[in-house]
Amino acid sequence: MQDTPPGRPTLETVARLAGVSRATVSRVVNGSTAVKPGVREAVARAVRELGYVPNPAARSLVTQRTDVVAFVLPEPATRVFSDDAFFPGVLRGVGEELEAADKQLLLLLASAPSSHERILRYVHGRTVDGVVLASLHGADPLPASLEALGVPVVASGRPLGPATFPYIDVDHAGGVEAAVRYLLQRGRARIATIAGPQDMVAGIDRLAGYRAALAGTDQEPLVAVGDFTRESGMVAMRRLLQEEPGLDAVFVASDLMADGALRALRQAGRRVPDDVAVIGFDDVEIARFTEPTLTTVRQPIAEIGRRLARQVLRRAAGEDIEPALVLPTELVLRESA
Amino acid sequence: MQDTPPGRPTLETVARLAGVSRATVSRVVNGSTAVKPGVREAVARAVRELGYVPNPAARSLVTQRTDVVAFVLPEPATRVFSDDAFFPGVLRGVGEELEAADKQLLLLLASAPSSHERILRYVHGRTVDGVVLASLHGADPLPASLEALGVPVVASGRPLGPATFPYIDVDHAGGVEAAVRYLLQRGRARIATIAGPQDMVAGIDRLAGYRAALAGTDQEPLVAVGDFTRESGMVAMRRLLQEEPGLDAVFVASDLMADGALRALRQAGRRVPDDVAVIGFDDVEIARFTEPTLTTVRQPIAEIGRRLARQVLRRAAGEDIEPALVLPTELVLRESA
DNA sequence: AAGGGGATTGAGAGCGCTCTCAAAACGCAC
DNA sequence: GTGCGTTTTGAGAGCGCTCTCAATCCCCTT
Domain HTH lacI-type: where (chains A, B) (predicted)? Predict the structure, then answer.
C-alpha cells in the first residue's frame, strides 16, 4: 500500500506515486508531448488511482488565466430576465460555446445599479478572462471602464454611441424593412408600428427599418412606443387603434409586444390577419403559440450567444477580431400576416 | 513620486507605499480590527491610490475557499431553459441572494449528458464552495457523487428516492388539492388533469394532489400526461376531450401546458370557463396574458432561488441546515376558473 | 569507442495571499 | 522607573502549480 497523505492529492502526491518529478506530472496533465510514452502511462495511472484533479486556483495564480468568462446582464435586462426568452436564449448559446471550449461561465446578474462596482471589481481582480455584455442601454459607462482595464469585452448589440469595443448584432433594420415591404406588397395601406425603447439600438434600428420601408411610399409613419413587454404592446396597440382606427397592419418590434398587441386587437374586435396584419420580431417560442400564430422576423438568438462567446475567447487568446459581426435576420411567415 | 512597480499592484506594493508589512495590509483589506486607526487609514489610502484589488486565485489557494457557488442545470432542464420562465426565475433568485452575500454564481448548463463528468471535475477541483442543483430527473446519480466529494449541495425539488441531501420544494400536492377542491366546490362534475412527467417529483406530486382531492368524491380520475411544454399541453387536452367529451374542468400541472390546453379547447369550440374551467400551476408571466387569463397555483419561484442560495451558503459556512424546506403555494384566481 | 545533438527529466524559483508565531510597542499599576 | 499584560506589527512559511534552465539520457555518426 502506498502511504497516501491525507486530503486532496496534489501534483506532489502523484509525482511520488509515479516515481517522477512534479514537473513531469504537470507535463502529462497538461498534455505536453515531451514525455516518454512509458512514463506518461505511469503518471496517468497514478492520476487515475489517486483521483487527482488540478487545483485551478494554484494554476491561475501562475498562468494569470482563470478560464472563466463573465456574462453580464445589466439591471434593466435582469428585470425581464425570466419573462423573456431572449436573454436566456443568448445565455444558453454562450454556455454551449464555452462548454465546448472548456471554459466556465460566471453569471453576473446586476440586480441593482450599484452592481457596477462589483462587476468592475471582479474584472479588475482578474477573476475572469473576458466579459460578454448583454443589452446595453444608452451610454453605459461599463464597457469603457472594462476596456480600460484591458479585459476582452464583447457586447451583444451595437452600442449607441461610437463603438469602442467589438459587438455582435443582427441586421435589425434590414429584417424590419423586409417585413414591412412584405406588408406593402400584400396591399396593406395603413401600416403602423409599435417600436421598442428609443434608448436601445434594437429599438432605434427597428424603427428606422420601418421608416425606411415606408419612405418610398405615400404612407405616413404611425408610431407608438413600447418597452418590449407584453403590457406595453397591449397599451400601444390600443393607442394606435384609437389614433388611426383604419390601420390594416402593424409591425411590432418584439414578439412579446406583438402578443400583447394581438390581445388588444382581439379585444377591439379586429380580426388578424383579415382586418389587421401583424408581424413581430424575435421568433421566440411564443410566436408559434399566439392565436393566430405570429409572422415574425427571426433573429438567431442562440447563435448570437455562441458568437459572443467565440469572439471573446478569440480576443482573450490574443487574436484580433472583427469590430462588429452582424447576423442576418429572416422573415418567418405564419398566420398573422 | 513613488516608484510603483509596473503591472497590477500586489499586497507588497501597497505595503511598501503605506510603509507597513504585507500582513498589516492584509488585515486592513480583510477588515480585521487589530489595526491602529492611523495605520488603517494610511493603508486604505495606499489601496485607493494604487487601485489595489486582491487576487482571488492567490487568496483561494490559501483559504481553500473560492466564494463561488455553482448553479447546475441538467441536460433536460437546459433544453427548456429559454422557453420556460421557471428556471430563469429560480436562477434570478439565486443570483440575487448570492450577490447580497458577495459570492459569485457559476452557471453550469449541461448541454450534453456527458457534462456530468465536467461538473464533477469542477467540484472536485474545488472550483466551487457549493452547488445548487436544479431540476433532478429520476434517480440522478449526480447529487450522490457530489455529496461524496464533500461539497455542500442543495437541490431544487425533492428527489425521487430517499433524500440524502437537503432540498427546497413547494407544497405541490397541497396546492393542487386546494385548486381541485375549488373546482369541486364550484360544482364541476367531471374534472380531468394534465399531469407532468412522471419521473419528476413535480409531476408526480401534482398528480397525487389531484387524486387526493378527488378521493373523497364520486369522480373518477381522468389523466393525460404531458412534459410541461405547451405542445404537450395541447396534445394532452385534445386527447382528454376525445376520451371524455363531457369534462367540465381540467387541472393542468404547469402554466405553459395550460396555455396549450386553452388553445386546444378554443380550437375544439369549448368556452373557458363556461364549458370547461382550467387551472394551471406556476403563475409565470404568461398566466396573466392567456385568454382568458389563467387561474393558477402560484409557487414562489424567485423565493425558491433565494432559499436555495441561502441554504447552500449556510451549509458551506459549516452550519447545519434543515434537510428540507417546503414553501407554500397559493391559488390565484383569474378568469379561467 | 568517442563525441555530438536532440529528447527527457528534475530542481527550484516564484505567482500573491493568509496566518501563525514571536517580537515590539504600549498602557498602566506599583 | 520597572514589570506585566495587552495590543499591534512583522517575518516567514507555505497553499499547489507552472515554467525556465540545466542536467541527464539516448541514439547516431564518425
Answer: 9-63
User: Does B88 touch chain A if contact means CB atoms closer than 8 Å?
Assistant: yes
Nearest CA in chain B to A64: B57
Instruction: Map residue B104 onto helix, strand or coil.
Output: strand
For A293, residues 6+ apart whose C-beta sits below 8 A from its C-beta are: A287, A334, A335, A336
Instruction: Point out the residue among B53, B61, B289 whose CB comes nearest to the CB of A263.
Output: B289
The residues that bridge with A155 in the sheet, in sequence order, are A133, A167
A174 burial via Cβ count (<10 Å: 0-12, 13-18, 19+): middle
Residue-wise pLDDT for A254-284, tens only, equals 999 999 999 999 999 999 999 999 999 999 9
Write down the domain spans for chain A.
11-63, 68-169+302-327, 172-298
For the stretch B116-137, pLDDT in tens is: 778 888 787 778 999 999 877 6
Is residue B268 within 8 A of residue B260, CB to CB? The reply is no
Residue A310 Ramachandran class (φ > 0 left, ψ -120 to 50 alpha, else beta): alpha
Q: Give the separation between CA A272 and CA A248, rounded to whole angstroms.
A: 9
Q: What is the pLDDT of residue B138?
A: 61
Is residue B251 within 8 A of residue B191, CB to CB? The reply is yes
Residue nearest to nucleotide C26 (CA to C1'): B36
Cα distance between residue B253 and residue A51, in whole Å: 43
pTM (two decimals): 0.91
Q: Which CATH architecture has domain B172-298?
A: 3-Layer(aba) Sandwich (3.40)
- Cα-to-chain-centroid distance, residue A61: 30
Tell me the three cell numbers of residue B122: 469542477
Give how far B98 is from chain A: nearest CA, Å: 10
Q: What is the DSSP secondary structure assignment for residue A219, as one 8-state letter?
A: P
Higher pLDDT, B142 or A7: B142
For B11-63, CATH gives 1.10.260.40
The nearest alpha carbon in chain B to A100 belongs to: B111
Count how many Cα atoms sit within 13 Å of the Cα of residue A269 in the half-sphere of its side chain.
Answer: 1
Mean pLDDT value across chain A: 91
Q: Which of A92, A107, A266 sits opposite B105 (nearest CB)?
A: A107
A108 CB closer than 7 A to any strand C atom: no
* Measured CA A21 to C1' C15 distance, in angstroms: 20
| Amino acid symbol at B149 | L
Residues in B 32-61 whose C-beta is less than 7 A from nucleic strand C are: 52, 54-55, 58-59, 61
Say yes or no: do domains B68-169+302-327 and B172-298 share a fold: yes
